[in-house]
Amino acid sequence: MLDLSHIPLVDNHCHGLFADGSNLDADAYRHRFSECSGDPFPPDHTTTAAHYLWALRQIAGALGCEADEHAVIDARRARTQGELDRLFLAAANIDWLLVDDGYPASDQVSDRDELAVRSGIRIGWLERAETVAVRLAGGTRRFEEWDEALAAHLGSARRRGVCGLKSVAAYRSGLKIGEPDLDDVRAAHGRMAQMAVPRVQEKPLVDHLVGRVMEAAGAQELPVQFHTGYGDADADLRLADPLHLAPLMRRFPEVAVVMLHGAYPWTRSLAARRHLRQRVRGRLLRDPVSDRTRTARGNPSSAGRRARIAHLVQLRRRRHPRAALVGCGPWPPRSGHRPG
Asked: Which residue among 5, 52, 176, 179 is least crowded, i.e. fewest CB within 10 A of its CB?
């Protein structure tokens, strides 16, 4: 069996970690293993699920406790959040996290400096374009001012230490990005500015923003990440197919594009896009919590579950490398498996 455990890993797409997620009760802990973004599934749905029972065994091995839900929760409570982060990140040999600070809200998570201290590893920065656009809209009145400020801000990304730019266009108006008429963009910007809670959502404005992102990325040799496939529950899934990105990538052939979440259920489209264009990367993560491509907004790659899930993913991936890549292999792994 190929042993990859000695190779440090870079997680190129994660979200902020909650400021303190160590003191979870049973209901909250079960919710972390659910796909839902609202109320959790009934407790018996989670507690009898194969992925949850398997994960408890692996987490108990790392915590040195019995493979029981209550024992795991008690063992977590006996440690600080920083101790939990370091334990699981070290077990997974994660060396570098690239954090998208556009979600969750900044008042819920540790900032990058705090995260570096509590995790003990390198922390990089992915800048979400839609968050930038909304923030700049609050400080400008006219469209031209906003557009100039947007171009200047994105154009300074590398100098500010940004590792890559990112868009959630798939969950707004879709990935069929065009070249919008400037009058339509201006009108959409005006309507956004009048919202009680501004949001980049109309197609002309989304397409214009993505164009600015690609221009800035090309000039600075930065990659651009796109969410693809299933995400927000109100998104039109048909428009999240990565094949829609083909015209945009022909306009900006020099820009490296990373497609996130395996584009589920459009994973074959992602593979075709990758085959047809060299500067495309697909981030396909087989998640042991569900044994399929993890895609939902409320998933373990979001917010405070990163360290634990990274540990579980690498544990399975390293013991079954081929299974991690193509979704084959024994399930569930033997209960005797332990981190290391």
From this structure: 179
Chain centroid to CA 234: 18
For residues 283 and 249, is the Cβ–Cβ distance under 8 A?
Answer: no
Q: Hey, is 72 helix, strand or coil?
A: helix
**Token pair belonging to 257:** 């594009």
DSSP for 151-184, please give it: HHHHHTTTTTT--EEEE-GGGTT-S------HHH
Q: Dihedral (C-alpha) 21, 23, 25, 31: value to the nearest 10 degrees?
A: 0
Token digits of residue 10? 């870079």
| Span 135-174, pLDDT tens digits | 999 887 899 999 999 999 999 999 999 999 999 999 999 9
- Cα distance between residue 239 and residue 214, in whole Å: 19
Dihedrals phi, psi of 260, to nearest 5 degrees: -95, 160
Give the integer Cα–Cα distance in Å for 337 and 340: 9
Helix then strand then coil, in percent of the chain rounded to 5, is 50, 10, 40
Mutual angle of helices 203-220 and 143-155, in 10-degree steps: 30
